Each structure stands twice: as C-alpha cells, then as structure tokens.
Amino acid sequence: ILNVEQSPQSLHVQEGDSTNFTCSFPSSNFYALHWYRWETAKSPEALFVMTLNGDEKKKGRISATLNTKEGYSYLYIKGSQPEDSATYLCAFPEYGNKLVFGAGTILRVKS
Amino acid sequence: DVKVTQSSRYLVKRTGEKVFLECVQDMDHENMFWYRQDPGLGLRLIYFSYDVKMKEKGDIPEGYSVSREKKERFSLILESASTNQTSMYLCASSFQTAHTDTQYFGPGTRLTVL
C-alpha cells in the first residue's frame, strides 16, 4: 500500500490568519494528486486535481502547489474564515482511479 | 450536479447482525467505491466496482462483501457485524478510471455496532 502522509494532523487558527499544510506522496510513478475538503456533516468534495510538476491551482482563497520530483504538495488558505473549518484530504492514485488517501489535516478557524 | 446518496446517516446494530449499506448515484458513473473512515487513519478503501456485477477488493475487504446488480447502486454488506466495524462508511462514484477522475462522495453512514 502506498504511503500518503499529511501534516499537521490538526491546526487551530484565528480568523484572518493564513495557513498551509502538506501532503507527501511517492515521487516515483506520479500520475496525479487530488485534494478534497470534508466539512462536518457534509460529503467530501473535490478541490483540485494536480498533474504537472510546478503546477499551481487556485480556488478563491485556497491554492495548492505541486512538486512531483520531491513528492509533496502544499495547500494554502489565505485569510482563513470560520467556513474554511474542515478536514482537508489529499489522495494519490495507486492505479487507475483507485485513490490512496492521507489521514487528513483538521482545520479549525476561530472567529 | 452529481448526487450520491446513502440509505442511512446513522445506524445502530448488534454484534452478529447482517448489515446492508446502500449507495445510489444518479450520474451514470461507471465506478463506485466503499470506504471507511476512522480517526487518524483517513479513508480506507474496502471494495470498488468498475462495472455492473464486477467487484475488486480494496485494502481492507475482510468482513465485508459487496453487490452491484445495477449500474447506479452499490451495496456494502457486513455478513456478521462486529464491534470493530463501528465506523463512518462513505460511498463514492466516478465517471471513468483515469488517474485524474474526481470521485464524488455521499454524506456517509455512521455505523455503531454494539
């Protein structure tokens, strides 16, 4: 089973703070890297699918970067808001569409 | 919008009972997945299916079976529930099998086995 690691495990920030967290994955046989956001009592939803080394994707205040050579991706949230509170998951395709998920980073934003 | 629904949000069963968790997707997706989520462990794949009547074991299939008689429906079966199967169960679907295909998730079923 592939090893996909996320850090930190949890993060508590104040409203307005910017924050970032990491996903580490195997650097060999890279195909894609997925980011999902899972809010409490809701379904996990896709944020980004990243495929190219050096790729940067953005969705509102959330952005992600990708380094396939060293096997990591960063997720950044600028000016965190309480509605950003969620578990952020990254996932690495083992083969086809079979995803291996990291354990997630739990973000809590205090107002 | 893709919609993935699961039959129950919360379920309480007794040890030894047979448990059925149902998942339905409405977007004609080929692939469907069952995961469980436990604190500190992330989502772990139990079974998945690339087509009707086809199934493949995921990383933790022991104690579970699945059924996919129709394209839109994927059922997870606990033949004899045990307390270590208390968990959050998530169903997902995706259109194709490309590495970049997004998976769409249901809201989850929180199962407690007493």
Describe the overall structure.
The complex is a heterodimer of chains A (about 110) and B (about 110). The mean pLDDT of chain A is about 95. With about 110 residues, chain A is an all-beta fold. In chain A, strand 9 and strand 10 form a beta hairpin. In chain B, strands 2, 4, 5, 6, 9, 10 and 11 form a seven-stranded mixed beta sheet that branches. Chain B has a four-stranded antiparallel beta sheet with strand order 1-3-8-7, with no helix packed on it. Chain B is globular. Helices cover about 0% and strands about 55% of the residues of chain B. At the A-B interface, strand 5, strand 9 and strand 10 of A face strand 5 and strand 10 of B.
Helices and strands in order:
The complex is a heterodimer of chains A (111) and B (114).
Chain A lengths: L4 E3 L2 E5 L4 E6 L8 E6 L6 E6 L5 E4 L2 E6 L4 E6 L8 E10 L2 E4 L3 E6 L1
Parallel strand pairs in A: 2-11
Antiparallel strand pairs in A: 1-3, 3-8, 4-5, 4-9, 6-7, 7-8, 9-10, 9-11
Chain B lengths: L3 E3 L3 E4 L5 E7 L5 E8 L3 E8 L6 E2 L6 E7 L2 E6 L8 E8 L9 E2 L3 E5 L1
Parallel strand pairs in B: 2-11
Antiparallel strand pairs in B: 1-3, 3-8, 4-5, 4-9, 5-6, 7-8, 9-10, 9-11
